## 1
Amino acid sequence: MEIRPYRHGDLDAVAALWHASWLSTGVALEKPVSVAELRERFPEEIAKGWTVYVATLDANVIGFISIAGHTLEQLFIAPEYQNRGIGKTLLDFVKAQRPDGFDLITAVESSAPNFYEREGLTRREESHHPDYGHPIVRYEWVPH
């Protein structure tokens, strides 16, 4: 597996992966999102400051992360590659990129909270997603 900076040519693969990975969480949204909406949103988020890296295997995009400031905005792995250590590898990459710490928000009803807690992040406040309504929780990673 290789982690490299996002390229514009990755857009279709990243949007499809993001959508499939989100669906795999089983978290219901008040307003479902389509691949086309994610494809449109992605360049807008990059323009607002996201720095994006993709995980590739044999030239196929199998995961991605986006970071803005000290926030891990997104970490998604293609469903067929989940539970193989790729998420940990990407999270460790973020820790190396943000050695002073970072925070993130994730869905409460997914497997992500268990993953982040196992990887040393600290659970903070819970609320509801402002756009989609599902319960969310903020995590923080502070190096020891």
## 2
Amino acid sequence: MKIYNLWRTLSNRWLYLAGTLVIAGVFGTALYLQYVLHQEPCPLCMIQRVIFIAMLVLFAIATLHNPKRSGTKVYGALIVLLAVSGVSTASRHIWLQHLPKDQVPACGPGLEYMLGNFPMAEVWQELMHGSGECAAKGWTFLGLGIPEWSLFLYVLLGAWAVMIARRKPI
């Protein structure tokens, strides 16, 4: 009952700020894994990062904007759209990680090389399909890898945005 009362009394600004802080924590963790633990992100990881950054920007703008009823629906729809694309990307990543070793696609060239030598459409296609390096399982926490945690967070943040959009005005 106390949580429900807290939910009813907090302004949307605080709820959007909570989403912003969660994603900032996720991004901080990704940078820690990359630069301290030397876990190089694969192409699908990079796409998931871009989606998280876009969600962070929307949550942060919504925090500053503090929209009224119709604005919360617009922000909610945009965040859910990003969350769905994140769920799709993370699902593909999880699928690649669970393929038998003989079915894993070959590792492609690095992102920097592709950006310098391939047309952007081909780079985007390569990124979306993933490669052998995407099948490698790296860091885990509580038995779940990075793409599983990303999937969980996309669902959680999308649901959070929907809950904010569906709230009754204070």
